[in-house]
Amino acid sequence: MTSPMSPQNTWKQLAGNAAAELIQEGMVVGLGTGSTAAYLVQAMAQRIQQGLQIKGAVASSLATYDLANSLHIPMTDLDEHPELDIYIDGADEIDPQFRLIKGAGGALLREKILASAARRFVVIADSSKKVTQLGHIYPLPVEVVPLAKTPITLQLTRLGAEVKIRQHNNIPFITDNHNYILDCTFPQGISDPAQLDAQIHSIVGVVETGLFINMVSQVIIGGPEGVQIFSR
Fold this sequence. Notes:
This protein is α/β, with parallel strands linked by helices. It folds into two domains: 144 residues, Rossmann fold (3-Layer(aba) Sandwich), CATH 3.40.50.1360; 70 residues, 2-Layer Sandwich (Alpha-Beta Plaits), CATH 3.30.70. Helix content is 29%, strand content 25%. It is built from six helices and 15 strands. The strands form four sheets. It has a six-stranded mixed beta sheet, sandwiched between helices. It has a four-stranded antiparallel beta sheet with strand order 8-11-7-12, with helices on one face. A three-stranded antiparallel beta sheet has the order 4-5-13, with helices on one face. Strand 9 and strand 10 form a beta hairpin. The longest helix is centred in the first third of the chain and has 15 residues. It starts with 6 loop residues before the first helix and ends with a strand.
C-alpha cells in the first residue's frame, strides 16, 4: 500500500487540486472513482465551502457518492442532468494517444457512462500512469453478466488474454451494477486497443470494457516536476 505521505500521493493530490480549478460556477460535474479522484472531491468541496456554486455533481460509484455527500457537495444524477459540463476521473494507464485502461476500482461501466455524457472529459493521474503501450502494467477489466462468465472467459482466452475473475475476500467481486469483472492480462501488451475493444464488445454477455478510446480532451499529470497539462 502507498503510505499517505508518499510522493505518489502528493502527485495525485497536485493533479486533483489542479482539476478542481477547472470547475466553474453553475456547472454540472461528473466525479470519478479511485484514490486520485478522491483528492479532486476533497479539493472541490473546499472550493464550494469558499463560495463556488454548482448545479450538482454526479458520482461514478457509490463510494464516490458517499464521500462527496459527506463533504456537503450537492449531488444530482443523470435523470436530472443527462449532460455534464465536465467529467474528471483518474486512469490506470494512459498512452500517448490519450487512450486509457480504467477499472482497477471496479467502476468502469459507470465511469464510461459519465465520460460519454460529458462535454469534456479530463483525466487526472500521477506520472507513473503514463505508458508507451497499454496493457503492460494493469490488466484490462471486462465487466460481464455473471451467467456468461465462463463462455466469455473462453472467448477472451482465444483473443490472447490470461483471464482471472476478480476476487474480494475469496469470493467474486460484485460491481455496483451486480456484475462480475474479468481481469485480462495480455502478455505482449495491447497493440490495437480499438480493434480489441470492438472484438470484446462483440461477445454476448460483455457489459463494458475498461478501454477508453477517443474520449479524453485533457490530461493533468502530477509528478516530480509539479503539474503538467496535456490537451488533444
